[in-house]
Design a protein that fits this description.
Radius of gyration: 21 Å
CATH architecture: Alpha-Beta Barrel
Strand content: 15-25%
CATH class: Alpha Beta
Order of helices and strands: EHHHEHHEHHEHHEHEEEEHEHEEEHH
Bound molecules: beta-D-glucopyranose
Structural class: alpha/beta
Number of strands: 13
Low-confidence stretches: 432-447
Length: 447
């Protein structure tokens, strides 16, 4: 439950990362995509990333320094299985050793098996729209399960499958660069089946693991509130984008309708009740407008409250955070983990307020009954932001991309204070005032 100002004692604060965006020196479908000049700035390369592969222990310590007790990272499939059926023992041992050290340092690992990237062979040999993809992912997940043995890690099988689907199979702007509605529908069904297969493998090796997915959720609003067709596409988008995949993993049936593009209704064997928690990635709200040609939906970010769009161009809309949490609570009745939430704030000045506004909404949703267990900030440090390359800065820590030095942004201090005291206070208040607020709410709780 909660009182709206205090996080429960067992609430987890952590950070989230993804292998390709930070580790460096990875050859996979994304590095090929970059070489083909497909990023917004065709000269950008992920390359050495922020060298997290070599600075892992240092970065875990940075997370600890801001009061984190959980760290979400992903395993890079291309490192583990560089050629189909050939598993790299060194990479496997390295991942296991890192996770063991993290655990010893008092940080609970939250491990993503698939965060957008694939080994280079995957799309050529067993792409998602082919049934063989499911068994190939099962075999990879079996190896991941060996890496996770005895660690009691939380597992996210897939990060944002709908983003992969729309970007990779409908719009063709990220790998595998396909624009084919029929293949897209086959692919999303197989991804749901691959989740089920991975879950079986993990439970076999690591009984009792908590397994889920990370769902990117957007608040959708009609661009013209009075227009029936804007309202209709808004309803469709909300159901399809936010819910279809999660319903497949709770009800065992995948239903998706994308007008003018594709639709599907598929049974997902073993899909019913196949997640133990709902992972939500929340960033923003989008306004949708009906357009008279496929895909019939145009979207844009509007600065409705005049807070200023974030640097990447998204609306800063904390109110939507509680809405999405409560919607997930009402729809699935499962424990909720915020597996990502963050802001591209290139000057580092807006982030403390962003955290305050979003935490306030999170606590309000908990007060109204949502069962939220943890909050993982995206991201620990600045990193390689996919199509946007080296522009955006989501990090609690600023990274000098030349020297790779990590430097705390003002949000580090605030994050740490809240994570350690569990009391929310307004960071715009002066130090003295914020101290007084902490004391005041402590007294209020005691009383
Ligand atoms: C993804 C991250 C990404 C972040 C910011 C999420 O959709 O999971 O990989 O960096 O958003 O765009």
């Amino acid at each position: 439950m909660g009182d709206g100002t205090t996080f429960p004692g067992d609430f987890t604060f952590g950070v989230a990362t993804a292998a390709y965006q930070v580790e460096g020196h990875i050859e996979n479908d994304w590095s090929e995509w970059e070489r083909a000049g497909k990023l917004k700035d065709p000269n950008h390369r992920c390359g050495r990333g922020v060298d997290h592969w070599n600075l892992f222990d240092h970065d875990v310590k940075l997370a600890k320094d801001v009061g984190c007790t959980a760290f979400r990272l992903s395993l890079e499939w291309a490192r583990i299985e560089p050629a189909r059926g050939r598993f790299d023992e060194e990479a496997i041992a390295a991942y296991r050793a890192r996770l063991l050290r993290m655990k010893e340092a008092g940080i609970a690992p939250v491990v993503t098996l698939h965060h957008f990237t694939h080994p280079s062979w995957f799309h050529r040999e067993t792409p998602w729209h082919e049934p063989s993809s499911v068994e190939v992912f099962r075999r990879y997940a079996k190896v991941c399960a060996q890496i996770l043995r005895g660690l009691d890690a939380m597992v996210v099988t897939f990060n944002e499958p709908m983003v992969l689907l729309l970007g990779g199979y409908i719009q063709g702007v990220i790998p595998p660069g396909i624009t084919d509605g029929k293949k897209a529908m086959a692919a999303i069904g197989n991804i749901a089946r691959a989740h089920v297969a991975a879950r079986e493998e993990i439970l076999e090796e690591c009984a009792g693991s908590r397994i889920g997915t990370s769902q990117n959720v957007l608040v959708f609003r009609p661009d013209r509130w009075w227009h029936p067709l804007d309202r209709a596409v808004t309803r469709l988008a909300s159901e399809g984008y936010n819910h279809a995949f999660l319903r497949a993993l709770t009800e065992g049936e995948l239903r998706l309708f994308m007008p003018g593009l594709a639709s599907t209704k598929q049974t997902i064997d073993g899909g019913r009740d196949s997640i133990d928690f709902v992972g939500l990635n929340y960033y923003t709200r989008a306004h949708l407008k009906f357009i008279p040609r496929p895909p019939f939906i145009a979207f844009r970010y509007r600065d409705v409250h005049k807070r200023g769009l974030t640097h990447i161009g998204w609306e800063d809309y904390p109110e939507g955070f509680s809405q999405m949490i409560e919607e997930a609570h009402a729809s699935y009745g499962k424990p909720i983990w915020i597996t990502e939430n963050g802001i591209d704030d290139r000057l580092g000045t807006r982030r403390p307020k962003f955290l305050y506004d979003h935490w306030k909404q999170l606590l309000a949703a908990m007060k109204r009954g949502a069962d939220v267990r943890g909050y993982l900030y995206w991201s620990l440090m600045d990193n390689f932001e996919w199509l946007d390359g080296w522009g955006p800065r989501f990090g609690l820590y600023y990274v000098d991309f030349d020297s790779l030095e990590r430097r705390p942004t003002p949000a580090c201090h605030y994050f740490r204070q809240v994570a350690l005291t569990r009391r929310l206070f307004d960071p715009s208040a002066t130090e003295a005032e914020s101290g007084a607020q902490v004391a005041h709410s402590a007294l209020a709780t005691a009383g």
